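Reading a protein record of the kind used here takes only a little practice. To see the layout at work, look at the sequence and tokens printed below.
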Amino acid sequence: MLCAGKKSYFAAAVCIITVTSMLAASYLRLQRLSHQPKIIQEGRRCRGKIANSTITALKGNKTFIISPYFDDRESKVTRLIGIVHHEDVKQLYCWFCCQPNGKIYVSKAKIDVHSDRFGFPYGAADIVCLEPENCDPTHVSIHQFPHGNIDQLPRFEIKNRKAETFSVDFTVCISAMFGNYNNVLQFIQSMEMYKILGVQKVMIYKNNCSHRMEKVLKFYIEEGTVEIIPWPINSHLRVSSGWHFMQDGMHIGYYGQITALNDCIYRNMGRSKFVVLNDADEIILPLKHPNWKTMMNSLQKQNPGTSVFLFENHIFPETVSSPMFNISSWNTVPGVNILQHVYREPDRKDVINPRKMIVDPRRVIQTSVHSVLQAYGNSVNVPMDVALIYHCRKALQGDLPRESLIRDTTLWRYNLSLIMNVNKVLSQTMLRPQK
């Protein structure tokens, strides 16, 4: 025995710690070796049909692949954003085909189901595989086994393989648009406010919406502002519009929003300086700065090393309105006119307001809706006197009298530009008669 003959408790403790450390190091080394890519075939052409859907089901193993991304922030890996059954999916393998030598490598995946499933059996997951050292694979297939035939399996293009320069400063990620979404006027107002505040790109994970909304989306796509990511998750799983499994017992919560948000971060990692995670009825309103760029420059100088900035959500009930900006030509457009809603609910006792985020996408590993789960760098709560989230929706404190609400007209600072821009969109989308 390594510790034989040692009589003192101190010596025994040292021996136990030493042996335990050696065993732990050996275990970790074996674990890493088990995940190292191994050549299993040579001299073959890469086969398999290239996947072109946003959500691809893997046959028979309760796994859905969104997209793989190259990630070299710690080691050279392919990170697949996916959805898995948290209990039933135990092992997956990445099959890399390296051209032109035709070598096929198999790498055992680490399956990391995100902690915020809210009780649902399916959740967002990172499926992470070490890549071959002497190969930069462009595609990957996912298999349940480290052997067999993958000719019939879908092949996924690995995104972010090539370094990009930032094409935009701010990208807004909206997920997911569902329920035959028809809040047309508020959507246009939010889009135009985003643009006024400095947004160049809005990515929308769209499940479905109304015919009128389709016309508006078409306008913004042609303008170059919007990019649509099809999100047919209900073709694969029973989806809930709620957040907790106990509400309805479905497969996954809120149309898989968390998975979409993670995909949006990785999709924009190389092309957007910041990614903004909020809903279409939410606007981060700066109180001390004219736009997001000057606000974020200031916040970064004040908070070096911070990669996640969290903004407090405040409800402006759509049932309490002001007579100002009752623009008659907007009355035929379905949806809420946010300029008429400038009364916000006071903070609730013992209730913490949720937050939404502006993040540096290159420093986020996993995100939830109201906070990041894993990131490089710090998170900071932005003070309410710097900015707040204007969230116009159904009241949370519906019994409050009007005099208990707080009048907040910050939004009116932008009324001239907002009205002009909204009128332009309505005219060009033929949602109201042109004069």
Observations:
- The mean pLDDT is 90.
- DSSP finds seven helices and 23 strands in the chain.
